[in-house]
């Protein structure tokens, strides 16, 4: 049962990242063999290779690992199943690229040690969420994720950053408290008395049937609790504020690792603890579906109104995360598969968009959309990548976003065919309409950026603006961008293998 | 990839050629060379399209997923649209050689002009709904730079409007496509429709909603009320060759999409007598009359022509909405005639504007002396659009009215032809004043209204003359065209 190798990808970055913090104190004044960013880079790369080895070598993942027992049934254990490996693989692919990007982005910043230390530690914690074998472990790492990313939001130390990090902390901790209630109930109603994930759910059908309504109520509570990280309306407030953090943080953590941990936790909780069948057709399903749809509407509409580029992208993230939750709320096998496909596709397109925004900030210092005139010509590669990401976010065919939105909408229609007799059956069709509305809004908020960037500066504006001599960033920022753009196209053109895997996950857990 | 590879050639070739024109350093400085290269490339495209149409057959390009594949096929409707598109596109390129000679950034315009042609050919050749959707989006996005070309504030606003309306329409249509993908085992086009009764039983309400969404959504591109707002903004903002093809052909891509959806997927029978049909008829007729009225009171020449397009394309939609063979033939023939006439008119408007430097109809006067040939062509094209026999507009309107009278649509049998007549009167009212004031100027000359130069160069005059001649010739001898269209109609109704 105990396969110690599973602990390595979790502990290595945590310990390694921590050591950066300590080495900082000890070696002040003296020279170090390895600069903090090099050390961080090696750690991240090594960790990704280990994850790749665990995921790809047959048998390497073994049966699982019980790290320790808090008491009797409360164990911290890792086990990798297919859904965990999708999330782990995604994170392990993105982290080294984002680290490469931050080498250049952070070049002129002070306190690089702090940044890279926590950046690396977050990697380990996220792996812990991906590998978690039961809800207790997931919950533990979920809380740790809040604490370890808190210093990254605080990093600029400006008044705005302090305010943002405080909001982040309050919302996350508060949300986790709700999730904790879910944890307790899952444990008391489970068949085995543990919280181990079981495809299709693990509640004891006899005892659970008696307390169905209270369990559903707790489900809704936990949904909103975990939903804080997934930025479900009205718990989304922290996300646009947190864009004050350095772009590698916003891009990797607030578009992928942290927010998708929230979505991942909801998927785990729904499909592996409660079981989709338990919630399907109940009032709880309509409540969470309505919440997801409201968030999609809210996020994409707010994104159109927002003129600060990174905040606009953050609102876009809010709406896109709820696409994932809408898929999850369908409570069908294909709903789960579609939800995971959007989780994957959105990771690439949103990190790509954020990195483009970061590249522009880094090269020109511009953060508002109305300042971008003429930059498309100056930074052709960056904006070509942004164009790819925008088309994909909109859901134009041949790009990844089309595939995932197609799956989501198909899943909704399929649900309508099978279970349309429920009291809120029309809600799934409304969901399709909402997703299409949101796609239109995406077109507006992404393309107004692009059109501005490709329109030259008008006569009235100052010609000696330093931005007019800007150019594409160096290779360390461009390579990740180009890789993400390529992946977006690859998924868009050839999604067969990916969808095969995701459909298998859905079939097993739905 | 299996099937006739040659079908891919007329799609990929213009796109590659366009990319080369966009990236060529030498062409960026020499605009005239760029437009000459474009015209030559489109002349070659004519050969490729002819070869592809002659060979026919089908081709599976690529499978996106297990259920979504990109496939091409050539049938009667594709032949009609592809031939029309590449012919008119070539004339537009020839016209641009002279028209764009004073513009900046010609190579960029020409590059996208070529790419859009490729996307449109792809649209014409699409064998199923999803492939068509792919090319539809591609066409929208690649034609956007044509609207944005001037880069003025007005052009940018027009471009955004164009994009957002188009994308909204496309997503509305996508709702329908998603629904159909669930109820039907495939989405390949087949004359008469592919839906079975079993497929939609129990879901009639949702099915009709989906059908209506698709008609309305694709109708955005065709400028159908209430989503016509982008058209009068976008067409005049673009340079004349672009407004010509936008009005003449890109609006028709919306029509093509509706034909494919209604006649090749859903099947006309399934909509006959439903609320979808009646709402569609009402919207089309409203657009016909409203477009003409707005054109009548519009002072800017190019914008007036754009409103005229709004009205005329809805003639086609009205013909399609009747779900009746004669009206269907009328609609298809009006696609051909209106493309030619409206392209000619936009080309001529460009020539007028170049000659006078003015954009308002009131300021463009007394051209008969200076530009006799251009104004002569304008007069013939206008008469054709009004529908005076023997010019071509008469033929299509005759078929449309006859089809309406023969259809079983209740009061619309009479309201339809009446609306067409009213609109024809208005058309005469908004087009002919230029002729009258041009050839028969009364009173003293208005200040600065006269032309600064004479007839434009041959590069511009020949496309104008060819299109005008075609619109006259096809009106006099419509036989072969109509019999071809009748065979298409017989295969779908």
Task: Summarize the structure in words.
The complex is a heterodimer of chains A (510) and B (493). Chain A is 73% helix and 2% strand. Chain A has 20 helices and two strands. Chain A has a two-stranded antiparallel ribbon. In chain A, α3 runs parallel beside α14 and α3 packs antiparallel against α19. The model of chain A has no long low-confidence stretch (mean pLDDT 88). Chain B has 493 residues and is mostly helical. Chain B is 74% helix and 3% strand. Chain B contains 20 helices and three strands. Chain B has a three-stranded antiparallel sheet with strand order 1-2-3, with no helix packed on it. In chain B, α9 runs antiparallel to α11 and α10 runs antiparallel to α11. The longest helix of chain B is centred in the last third of the chain and has 32 residues. Chain B is globular and about 70 Å long. The two termini of chain B are 32 Å apart. Chains A and B meet through α17 and α18 of A and α6 and α7 of B.
List the helices and strands and how they pair.
The complex is a heterodimer of chains A (510) and B (493).
Chain A: H1 8-26, H2 36-56, E1 65-71, E2 74-78, H3 82-105, H4 112-131, H5 135-154, H6 159-189, H7 205-210, H8 212-227, H9 238-241, H10 247-274, H11 276-279, H12 283-305, H13 309-329, H14 333-364, H15 375-378, H16 380-394, H17 400-419, H18 426-454, H19 475-493, H20 496-509
Antiparallel strand pairs in A: 1-2
Chain B: E1 2-3, H1 9-23, H2 25-29, H3 31-55, E2 58-63, E3 69-73, H4 76-99, H5 106-125, H6 129-148, H7 153-183, H8 197-200, H9 204-221, H10 230-237, H11 240-266, H12 268-271, H13 275-296, H14 301-321, H15 325-356, H16 372-386, H17 392-406, H18 412-439, H19 458-476, H20 479-492
Antiparallel strand pairs in B: 1-2, 2-3
Helix pairs in contact in B: 1-3, 1-5, 3-4, 3-5, 4-5, 4-11, 4-15, 4-19, 5-6, 5-11, 6-7, 6-11, 7-9, 7-10, 9-11, 10-11, 10-14, 11-14, 11-15, 13-14, 13-18, 14-15, 14-17, 14-18, 15-16, 15-17, 15-19, 15-20, 16-18, 16-19, 17-18, 17-19
């Amino acid at each position: 049962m105990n396969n110690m190798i599973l602990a390595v990808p979790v502990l290595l970055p945590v310990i390694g990242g921590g050591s950066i913090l300590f080495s900082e104190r000890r070696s002040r004044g003296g020279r170090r063999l390895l600069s903090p960013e090099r050390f961080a880079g090696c750690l991240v790369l090594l960790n990704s290779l280990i994850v790749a080895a665990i995921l790809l070598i047959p048998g390497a993942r073994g049966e699982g690992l019980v790290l320790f027992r808090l008491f009797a049934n409360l164990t911290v254990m890792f086990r990798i199943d297919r859904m965990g490996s999708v999330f782990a693989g995604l994170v392990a692919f993105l982290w080294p690229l984002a680290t490469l990007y931050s080498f250049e982005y952070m070049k002129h910043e002070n306190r690089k040690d702090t940044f890279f230390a926590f950046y690396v530690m977050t990697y380990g914690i996220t792996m812990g969420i991906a590998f978690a074998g039961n809800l207790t472990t997931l919950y533990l790492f979920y809380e740790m994720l809040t604490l370890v990313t808190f210093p990254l939001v605080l990093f600029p130390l400006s008044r705005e950053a302090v305010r943002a990090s405080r909001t982040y902390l309050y919302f996350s901790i508060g949300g986790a408290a709700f999730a904790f209630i879910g944890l307790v109930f899952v444990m008391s109603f489970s068949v085995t008395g543990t919280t181990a994930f079981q495809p299709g759910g693990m509640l004891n059908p006899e005892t659970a049937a008696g307390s169905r309504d209270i369990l559903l109520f707790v489900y809704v509570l936990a949904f909103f609790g975990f939903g804080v990280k997934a930025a479900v309306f009205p718990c989304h407030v922290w996300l646009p504020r947190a864009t004050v953090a350095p772009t590698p943080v916003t891009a990797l953590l607030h578009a992928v690792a942290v927010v998708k941990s929230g979505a991942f936790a909801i998927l785990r909780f729904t499909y592996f603890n409660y079981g989709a069948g338990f919630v399907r057709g109940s009032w709880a399903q309509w409540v969470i579906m309505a919440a997801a749809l409201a968030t999609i509407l809210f996020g994409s509409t707010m994104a159109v109104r927002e003129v600060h580029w990174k905040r606009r992208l953050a609102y876009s993230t809010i709406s896109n995360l709820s696409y994932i939750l809408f898929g999850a709320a369908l409570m069908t096998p294909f709903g789960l598969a579609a939800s995971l496909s959007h989780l994957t596709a959105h990771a690439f397109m949103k990190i790509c968009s954020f990195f483009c925004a970061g590249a522009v900030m880094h090269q020109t210092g511009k953060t508002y959309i109305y300042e971008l005139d003429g930059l498309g010509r100056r930074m052709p590669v960056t904006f070509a990548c942004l164009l790819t990401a925008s088309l994909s976010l909109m859901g134009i065919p041949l790009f990844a976003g089309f595939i995932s939105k197609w799956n989501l909408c198909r899943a909704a229609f399929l649900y309508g065919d099978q279970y349309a007799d429920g009291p809120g059956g029309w809600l799934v069709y409304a969901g399709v309409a909402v997703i299409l509305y949101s796609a239109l809004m995406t077109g507006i908020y992404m393309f107004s950026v692009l059109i501005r960037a490709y329109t030259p500066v008008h006569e009235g504006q100052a010609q000696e603006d330093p931005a007019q001599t800007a150019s594409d960033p160096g290779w360390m920022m461009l390579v990740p961008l180009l890789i993400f753009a390529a992946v977006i196209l690859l998924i868009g053109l050839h999604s067969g293998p990916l969808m095969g895997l995701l459909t298998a996950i859905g079939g097993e857990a739905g | 990839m299996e099937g006739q590879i040659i079908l891919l050639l007329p799609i990929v070739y213009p796109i590659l050629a366009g990319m080369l024109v966009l990236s060529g350093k030498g062409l960026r400085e020499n605009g005239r060379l760029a437009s000459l290269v474009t015209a030559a490339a489109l002349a070659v495209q004519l050969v490729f399209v002819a070869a592809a149409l002659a060979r026919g057959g089908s081709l599976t390009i690529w499978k996106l997923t297990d259920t979504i594949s990109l496939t091409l096929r050539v049938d009667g409707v594709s032949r009609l649209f592809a031939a029309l598109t590449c012919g008119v596109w070539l004339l537009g390129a020839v016209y641009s050689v002279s028209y764009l000679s004073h513009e900046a950034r010609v190579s960029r315009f020409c590059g996208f002009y070529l790419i859009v042609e490729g996307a449109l050919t792809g649209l014409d050749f699409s064998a199923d709904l999803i492939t068509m959707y792919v090319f539809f989006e591609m066409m929208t996005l690649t034609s956007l730079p044509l609207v944005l070309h001037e880069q003025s504030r007005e052009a940018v606003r027009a471009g955004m409007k164009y994009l957002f309306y188009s994308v909204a329409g496309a997503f509305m249509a996508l709702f329908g496509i998603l629904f159909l993908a669930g109820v039907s085992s495939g989405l390949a086009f087949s004359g008469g429709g592919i839906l079975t009764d079993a497929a939609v039983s129990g879901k009639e309400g949702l099915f009709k909603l989906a059908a209506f969404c698709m008609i309305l959504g694709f109708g955005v591109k065709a400028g159908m009320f209430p989503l016509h707002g982008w058209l009068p903004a976008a067409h005049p903002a673009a340079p004349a060759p672009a407004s010509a093809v936008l009005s003449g052909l890109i609006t028709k891509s919306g029509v093509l999409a509706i034909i494919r959806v209604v006649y090749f997927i859903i099947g006309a029978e399934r909509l006959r007598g439903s609320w979808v049909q009646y709402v569609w008829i009402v919207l089309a007729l409203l657009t016909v009359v409203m477009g003409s009225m707005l054109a009548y009171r519009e002072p800017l020449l190019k914008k007036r022509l754009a409103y005229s397009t709004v009205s005329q394309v809805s003639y086609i939609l009205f013909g399609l909405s009747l779900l009746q063979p004669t009206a269907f033939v009328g609609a298809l023939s009006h696609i051909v005639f209106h493309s030619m006439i409206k392209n000619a008119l936009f080309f001529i408007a460009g020539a007028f504007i170049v000659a006078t430097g003015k954009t308002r109809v009131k300021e463009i006067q007394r051209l008969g002396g200076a530009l006799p040939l251009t104004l002569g062509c304008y007069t013939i094209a206008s008469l054709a659009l009004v529908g005076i026999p023997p010019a071509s507009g008469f033929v299509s309107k005759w078929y449309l009215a006859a089809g309406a009278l023969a259809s079983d649509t209740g009061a619309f049998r009479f309201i339809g032809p009446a609306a067409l007549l009213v609109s024809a009167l208005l058309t005469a009212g908004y087009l002919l004043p230029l002729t009258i004031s041009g050839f028969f100027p009364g009173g003293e000359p208005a200040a600065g209204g006269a032309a600064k130069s004479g007839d434009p160069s041959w590069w511009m005059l020949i496309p104008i003359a060819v299109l005008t001649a075609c619109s006259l010739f096809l009106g006099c001898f419509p036989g072969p065209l109509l019999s071809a269209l009748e065979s298409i109609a017989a295969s779908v109704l």
